[in-house]
Amino acid sequence: MSAVTINDVARQAGVSKKTVSRVINNEANVSVETRDKVMAVIQATGFKRNPLGMALAKNRSLFIALLADNPSPGYLQKLQKGVLQYCSESNMGLFLYDCSYRSPGLVAEIEGFIDNTLADGLILVPPLSDKKELLDMLNRRKVAYVRIGAPDAALGDSVGFDNQQAAYELTRYLLRLKHKDIGFVLGHPDQGSSQRCEAGFRQAYAEAGIEFPEKLLVQGYYTFQSGVDAAAVLLNKTPRPTAILASNDEMAVGVLYSAHSRGLKVPDDISVVGIDDIALSTKVWPNLTTMRQPITAIGYRAAYKLIRKLQGLPDEGPKNPEADLLTCELIVRDSAREPGRN
Amino acid sequence: MSAVTINDVARQAGVSKKTVSRVINNEANVSVETRDKVMAVIQATGFKRNPLGMALAKNRSLFIALLADNPSPGYLQKLQKGVLQYCSESNMGLFLYDCSYRSPGLVAEIEGFIDNTLADGLILVPPLSDKKELLDMLNRRKVAYVRIGAPDAALGDSVGFDNQQAAYELTRYLLRLKHKDIGFVLGHPDQGSSQRCEAGFRQAYAEAGIEFPEKLLVQGYYTFQSGVDAAAVLLNKTPRPTAILASNDEMAVGVLYSAHSRGLKVPDDISVVGIDDIALSTKVWPNLTTMRQPITAIGYRAAYKLIRKLQGLPDEGPKNPEADLLTCELIVRDSAREPGRN
DNA sequence: CGACACATTGACACCGGTGTCAATATGCTT
DNA sequence: AAGCATATTGACACCGGTGTCAATGTGTCG
User: Fold this and answer.
1) Fewer CB within 10 Å, N- or C-terminus of chain B?
2) Are A206 and A283 within one domain?
3) How many structural domains comprise chain A?
């Protein structure tokens, strides 16, 4: 059945196994006749190189891993899809590893994971991508990585999108709709994206020359539940905000939920918008108006960058020197409109 | 830095590398002094066995893979969590692979994936777990697998839960609430679980001595969109059903969405229930009444069964001879109640 | 024709472990 | 004390590939 080895091919083709190795690796300096002969045997026998043997010899495993804490499940899922897609295209295996951001043994745990799998490279999802100790360990052990969503040239390659721009444009959109009292649900305080979102809100207000409603800024943690809780606070304020902007869709859906449970109608009584455009956003009623982040594309691009680096090939993507920032897009759906008579 | 090999340990401990191998594998017939001496060096050097070398020598990779098409993202996510958990506990790596159920090259594609990764075993998520050609290939290649959610002793080990029982109890619950015209959204026709659900509906009606409403049976495909579509059909019937039971929560949420978009109130105007209890079910308004399937536990148990099998250790779980069927549980939330005056 | 660059190929060691088997030491039986 | 079973250990080949280097063959130049 299986197990046609390089030795079998070599024997049948009447060459040394090194020559077979040359052929399967497309190396130069193999005569055309030899190459054809070997290829024929490979075809006939259905030979596939054993990745483990190769990995051992080359000290390169051909596996990468996606490391994630689980902030917004919908986000992770889309990201994973993009990563997986490029992995398939390039015949790389993708390991999955869940970890807990707050666990004290995190770095050691991940070190153990690397030892167990010998993954060549890692894709780090926020908030892991901001974790200095982790990056230090990876640098020390010379494990390649690409970070998602946290551009900071000093910390290494990253792919993400411009949260500040997204929040800025979304806020402008609400301001254009004539909302003035907008409630903001912040993201997780440990994540850089959170501060960038906040900067975007403020920027839009500043440009419009309207005083920023400091009292309508509520802490969130990027989770559904934190959105529910934040909305509960905001909806008790007087005057009640006419719109709520959450730093991600997962929380925006929580806001929606909170509004519904107090009998408020969206968008008649209050507008709700988010950022990301995850699958969930079109499963709730009403569909969420949001800034679409090309999450799957980001995952794809991250995998591309990592794998190209591992292969020693140049990155032929966008020429952005330090970080890839993919652009976002306003998706107008049904959860926001001009404030009504209340 | 890294790369303490078994040779290094052997040299420093003054023994042969085979003896070191014996120690790290906990083999018998090593004297206590030797074991201690070797252990001390292992501790001191921080030696970790290289999984690739081991895999090559033993012809066992210590990696398993989760193969999935993507029926209901929430389902997959919970499952993945359970699988990952047991993998972590047992130091196994988990590969992820997405595939398309309908792709004609599916079997060859998966075969290629196995060649690329040398995964020791596979966990198959429905509808893959029903795919005869796939199972044949795996048997032929002697790749171990555990199937999720499709008990059928002839096809190999499986872990799942009793869909028929779930649908049966859920239907009884609605009947007890005095619903009579219940609309049913069936699952994917290719998946066995779908027929079992249907059997459960019918069983409950038969027991109650009520004629089964054949006209209220609508085809679905386990996706959100198919739930939306099926509900559109059901809500146009006269008389309109007073309740809709969907074969999974993903579709039930679609039904909810459909009801909302026609201005119907749930549960005042119509009750909606589903099966699974995914994360989504508590993010929509109103929260979904559902039969909870212990999805994460199923994933955990599947990984357990597979890995124990690979390790040649006995399965010390439930003594169910052919398939593990974990029990389900009715979760009463806010999307169903007695039919109103209409 | 000799010297030399270059293309082609294979022998062999090596990556980091494990399996087999033989060598030696030890304890027990009679 | 001889005979034998058992415990402990290491030498060596092997898993399936790749890297190094030397040995050939071929073409070009002076």
Assistant:
1) N
2) yes
3) 3
B56 touches chain A (CB under 8 A): yes
The mean per-residue pLDDT over the stretch A109-124 comes to 93
Distance C10 C1' – A3 CA (angstroms): 24
Write out pLDDT tens, residues B142-162. 899 999 986 676 778 888 888
Pairing of strands B158-161, B121-124: unpaired
Q: What pLDDT digit, counting tens, does each position of B228-237 carry?
A: 999 999 999 9
Mutation test of the interface with chain B: which of A137, A265, A283, choosing the one with the most B Cβ atoms within 10 A?
A283
Looking at the fold, whether A271 and A322 belong to one and the same domain comes out as no
Burial class (CB in 10 A: 0-12, 13-18, 19+), A309: middle
- Rounded distance between C-alpha atoms, residue A257 and residue B266, angstroms: 14
A118 and A228 belong to one structural domain: no
Determine contact: A116 vs chain B, CB below 8 A: yes
Measured distance CA(A195)–CA(A202) in Å, rounded:
11
Is residue A333 a part of any domain in this protein? no
Q: Which residue type, as a one-letter code, is found at position B245?
A: L
- The C1' atom of D8 and the CA atom of A286 lie apart, in whole Å, by 74
Say if B75 is an interface residue toward chain A (CB within 8 Å): no
Give percent of chain A above pLDDT 70. Answer: 95
Q: List the domain range (segments joined by +) for residue B15.
A: 6-49
A339 occurs within a structural domain:
no
The predicted-structure confidence for B237-278, as pLDDT tens digits, reads as follows 988 999 999 999 999 999 999 999 999 999 999 999 999 999
| B60-95 pLDDT, tens digit each | 888 999 999 876 788 898 999 999 999 999 989 999
Burial of B336 (0-12, 13-18, 19+ CB in 10 A): buried
**Are B283 and A279 a contacting pair at CB < 8 A?**
no
